[in-house]
Amino acid sequence: MTIDQRERAMTESKVPAVTLGFWVIKILATTLGETGGDSVSMSWLGETTPEAGASALNGYLIGTAIFLTIFLILAAWQMKSRRFHPLLYWATIIASTTAGTTMADFATRSMGIGYAGGSALLLALVIASLAAWKLTTGTIRVESVSEPRSEAFYWLTITFSQTLGTALGDWVADTNGVGFGGGAIFFGALLALIAGLYSWTGINRVFLFWAAFILTRPLGATVGDLLDKPTASGGLSFSRPLASAVLAMVILALILLLPQRPGRHPAARDASI
Q1: Whole-prediction pTM
Q2: What phi and psi, each to the nearest 5 degrees, are found at residue 215?
Q3: pLDDT tens-digit readout, 113-143
Q4: Selection from 147, 152, 223 nearest residue 183 by Cα
Q5: Which of 22, 24, 157, 260 has its CA 20 to 30 A from that of 208?
Q6: Phi-psi category of residue 76: left, alpha or beta, with phi > 0 → left and psi -120 to 50 → alpha
Q7: Number of CB atoms found within 10 A of residue 2's CB
Q8: Which residues face 262 on adjacent strands?
Q9: Contacts (Cβ under 8 Å, ≥6 apart) of 170
Q10: What residue ranges do the domains of the chain occupy?
């Protein structure tokens, strides 16, 4: 390996370049996380409603244990790897969002703290994780995710944000009759607003990235619920395992077809964060 190649390897991020394709796959991955998490915690291990009591509680706990274990294994593999591997990265993202689904359902339903309490708790954890990352490494730019310390904070923040997004999605969809379709429109509009702010304002790019990253999760959560919840609850009543399988195949196709390269966050030139 030449000196230039070594220097490039040291500066390349272990996460993908932030492109339109990145956001498309991210939204699909969060939708898969919702349908996949519900498939295990509700369809296979428990009843389909939290009123089922101990059955639902066990479903959320067992589902969380399964998906959190998978996520930790994949995250450790990802951090041990020396360079960006598209399939490994997106598998870790999917595992984090699926674990986030079951953890959020356990926190907001089985623990009895409700959507508002769960969302507030998880938002505090996201902010605390970002603050600790900033204080420890000096930056929360995605371009910094090239060494173990920053990568550990990256995956910790992602896990909290995926869990927060599930709680936010459920909160909006279940409040004032908004429904899953209305919730998807609401969060889609917020993401469009962030895209507009990115294009037409000078607002800090790192802040906008993390705001968008967090909001893709409730969008995916509401779309996932729209697909697999019973029609009586406002969903389309699609088979959860079938919806999950279709989403997984689409994601795999996009990963293979769209350019997947390590890259720098668009905020690489922004020195404020």
Answers
A1: 0.84
A2: -75, -20
A3: 777 887 888 889 999 999 999 999 888 888 7
A4: 223
A5: 260
A6: alpha
A7: 7
A8: 16
A9: 104, 105, 108, 115, 221, 225
A10: 14-262
